[in-house]
Amino acid sequence: MTERSETQQAKAKAKAGAVIIPVTLFEQNCTLLWCEATKKAVVIDPGGDVPRIKAAIKQANVAVEKIWLTHGHIDHVGGAAELREALQVPIEGPDIADKFLLDNVVTSGARFGMTGVRDFVPDRWLNEGDQVRIGELTFDILHCPGHSPGSVVYFNADMRFAHVGDVLFSGSVGRSDIPGGNHATLIQSIKDKLLPLGDDVGFICGHGPGSSIGQERMTNPFLTGAR
Questions:
Q1: What is the pLDDT of residues 56-86, one digit of tens each?
Q2: Other Cβ atoms within 10 Å of 52 Cβ, number
């Protein structure tokens, strides 16, 4: 076997797998992410439609051990308490600055006709510099306020991959015209925390298609000054 083919084969052996499960009327990207070596998995942002999430877990044939939250908005957390109870796993994240959102999940849900949701407290609040793990995968926590005060990003340096929630999108950024939002703070979070990760870092976001840091640095109008 040539050195080149060995390299190609190594690259083909992905360290992680992922399935995006669109949930709620907001088409939020609930993400099932797992470690290929151990098949241990995490559900990121179970916003609702819990039966659909459970069906995806069964189809992927993985063992969910945790729930991670990027922030406290209803379309990202509406199904968290129900899923925690069903799977008997802990919830990690977001930053405690989003506690006011998690204390008002029922109220938020009522505004959008979402029933069966619950207020809850995560098993672990996450802070800048913390690490979380699933199987053999380790993610660094970046606190990125602006869309919400407690928004966090999950970054795996080894895979050059991040889950950014609603901080950054393909061609856009998160809303800041909502309670706790601040546009200037959001842009500063992106420039100080996300852009330095490197142009080669790919990401999944909370809505729509994923992208890369480099692509957004070059073309995102909120970062290039076009808006």
A1: 999 999 999 999 999 999 999 999 999 999 9
A2: 15
* Residue 207 · residue 193 · CB < 8 Å: no
Going by C-alpha positions, the residue among 29, 73, 102, 30 that lies closest to residue 176 is: 73
Whether the model pTM is above 0.85: yes
What confidence tier does 227 reach under pLDDT thresholds 50, 70, 90?
low
Residue 205 forms part of a structural domain: yes
d(CA 130, CA 126): 6
Whether the Cβ atoms of residue 51 and residue 76 lie closer than 8 Å to each other = no
In the block, residue with structure tokens 């930053």: 95
Q: Is 222:183 a contact under the CB 8 Å cutoff?
A: no
Q: Answer whether 63's CB lies under 8 Å from 40's CB.
A: yes
Q: Is residue 9 part of a domain?
A: no
Does any domain span residue 2?
Answer: no
Establish whether the linkage from the previous residue to 122 is cis, with ω within 30° of 0. no
DSSP 8-state class, residue 191: I
Within a domain: 1: no
End-to-end CA distance of the chain: 52
Domains identified in the chain, total number: 1
Categorize the per-residue pLDDT at 34 as very low, low, confident or very high, splitting at 50, 70 and 90.
very high
CA distance 37 to 24: 31
Cβ neighbors of 129 (< 8 A, separation 6 or more) are 140, 141
Residue in 172, 174, 168 with CA at minimum distance from that of residue 153: 168
